[in-house]
UniProtKB/TrEMBL annotation:
Protein name: Glycosyltransferase family 9 protein
InterPro entries: Glyco_trans_9, LPS_LOS_Heptosyltrfase
GO MF annotations in UniProt: glycosyltransferase activity
EC number of the protein: 2.4.-.-
Pfam families named in the record: Glyco_transf_9 (PF01075)
Keyword vocabulary terms for this entry: Glycosyltransferase, Transferase
Length: 353
């Protein structure tokens, strides 16, 4: 049996996005448990750091891509005179590769050959073991395994405090806290991944009929604000609109209070997973077996596989893992009846009657 090195300093590189850093938290915390004496530093994006600030025992170093070349210079200055025992480069994007160049480490571990893209191989000197048909989180688990962490069941200790929870509770109000709560987080980063507002409205009305209070969550962007307004316009039931009203940690606490979340392929779906809230995920463009809500993949409603077969003539097992399908209207193929059926299934299975 190979002896595991006694690491004193470990650097994690995963800049984005919200869902992916949520997946990575479980790996980082497993690493901390296995290497309690190691100082752990995590280089991540500015927005992601807003969610993970004060992550227990982890030093966060922010890389703000909007700063351009200055961000790389700042990173070099931050790590000047330092040397990590190991860097876990958990991102294949070219920008992340150049970030990795600014991080001094004896060993730089990256993805296996099959998942190496955008010149990723130039910025590492060791690889994780290859995996077949793995969820994104499973890939991050393999990074932990590469430095001696035995296989583990993912758990999360997300960093929020009483003030964050109190603010979330204040926004929800006593009426919403006293009853079952159905949260719809309707917007993904790209409009084509969003379900139709009138269909979200149908589910809001359906949940209300089943005795749930309904709330909308999201950021302050024009896309998210307009989508929320359109959902409310099409709905016949009271909906609490929290879109643009929560910081990321407050949003996390709202999701923690929820009994059930409905969301497309978006960060809040994975945030909900970290606080143990069941998620009904809506997927069309990406394989939910790779990017779906990790603990609730059985609750996904998807049209990905049928579109992949139609566009390529092949199944997910016959194309490169992670292959996406294209089309602006794919989400419209997800019917309200199919989502209602899944809603009923989850309510029954989770004991939310």
């Amino acid at each position: 049996m190979t002896q595991v090195p006694n690491y004193s300093s470990i650097c994690i590189l995963r800049l984005s996005a919200i869902g992916d850093v949520c997946h990575a938290v479980s790996a980082v915390q497993a690493i901390q448990k296995a290497h309690p004496n190691a100082k752990v530093t995590w280089v991540m994006g500015k927005i992601e750091a807003m969610l993970l600030a004060d992550l227990p025992g982890v030093e966060l170093v922010i890389f703000d891509k909007k700063e351009g070349k200055a961000a790389f210079k700042k990173l070099k200055n931050t790590f000047k005179g330092k040397q990590f025992d190991v860097l876990l480069n958990m991102q294949v994007a070219l920008r992340a590769g150049f970030v990795a160049r600014c991080i001094p480490a004896k060993v730089k571990i990256g993805f296996d050959w099959a998942r190496s893209k955008e010149l990723h191989s130039l910025f590492i000197n060791k690889r994780i073991a290859p995996q077949k048909e793995a969820h994104v989180l499973e890939g991050f688990k393999e990074f932990a395994g590469a430095i001696g962490v035995d296989d583990y069941t993912p758990t999360w200790r997300m960093p929020y405090n009483a003030q964050d929870q109190n603010k979330a509770d204040e926004l929800l109000g006593q009426e919403y806290l006293a009853n079952k709560l159905f949260v719809i987080s309707p917007a993904a980063s790209k409009a084509q991944r969003n379900w139709l507002p009138e269909r979200y409205a149908v589910l809001a009305d359906y949940a209300h009929e089943q005795g749930f209070n309904v709330a909308l969550t999201g950021g302050p962007t024009e896309l998210e604000v307009n989508l929320a307004n359109n959902i409310i316009k099409h709905s016949n039931s009271p909906i609490l609109n929290l879109v643009g009203k929560t910081k990321l940690k407050e949003l996390l606490c709202v999701l923690k209070r929820a009994d059930l979340v409905l969301a497309p392929d978006t960060g809040p779906a994975h945030m909900a997973v970290t606080v143990g809230t069941p998620v009904v995920g809506l997927y069309a463009h990406s394989n939910p077996a790779r990017t779906g809500p990790y603990l609730y993949q059985d609750y996904v409603v998807e049209v990905y596989h049928q579109n992949l077969l139609e566009q390529t003539g092949k199944t997910a097992q016959q194309v490169p893992w992670g292959t996406r399908v294209k089309g602006d209207d794919l989400m419209s193929q997800i019917t309200t009846d199919s989502v209602k059926t899944m809603f009923d299934h989850v309510v029954n299975k989770e004991g939310l009657e």
